[in-house]
Prior knowledge:
The chain is α+β, with helices and mostly antiparallel strands. It is 42% helix and 26% strand.
Amino acid sequence: MKVKVNRLRSVAVVLAGVALTAVLTGCQGGDDDTGSSSGGAVGSSSATPSGGAGAGKTAGASPSAGPSTPSGSTASPSSPASAEPVADATPSAVPCADGPPTVEEVDPDEIALFRIEEIDGITDKVNLVLQHGAWGCPGKDTDGPPFVVTGEDSRWAMDQGAYVTAVTPIVESTENQRIGVQELIDWVDAHPDSGLVFRYTVGADGAIHRLEQVFTP
């Protein structure tokens, strides 16, 4: 009987050891689960930076979009919008006459001078034989637009004491030089029908008191 008891004790000790080992193993497994849960939590936290990196890309899109805003802005100095008023102010924006001008197109301040006639019985006036017109479209072989006349010759009185200026070919200058009325008469008599263009101003008596030649290249 003692032998059996001793054997039973040995078996009980072995079973107790196995049970203890199982318990310890179970505890370690639980710890591993906890560890894996922690690992999952860590993985979850590590996912947060990756999400942050994605957010970083989204945030990075803002700066990349930023520079495109000035390039499309109309406030840019190179914007065509800032050149529009200048374009309207340039002579090239004014339509030119490609044929004989109509009454609406005739320039009211400029005339083409062809001849000068003295008026019998009046010593302080002369008649300018002239035509009205408008500036035409410049040709391929010209440096500037021509003055296109229309209608027939007109006669307009000019005071012999009028203020007169001239440029080439009357004088050797591209800037207006003051000349006398008689000097103008002599040149026009020697070069009839030249059609030089002049700006004019009328006095209180209706006669021309100021005549300034327009330089045409």
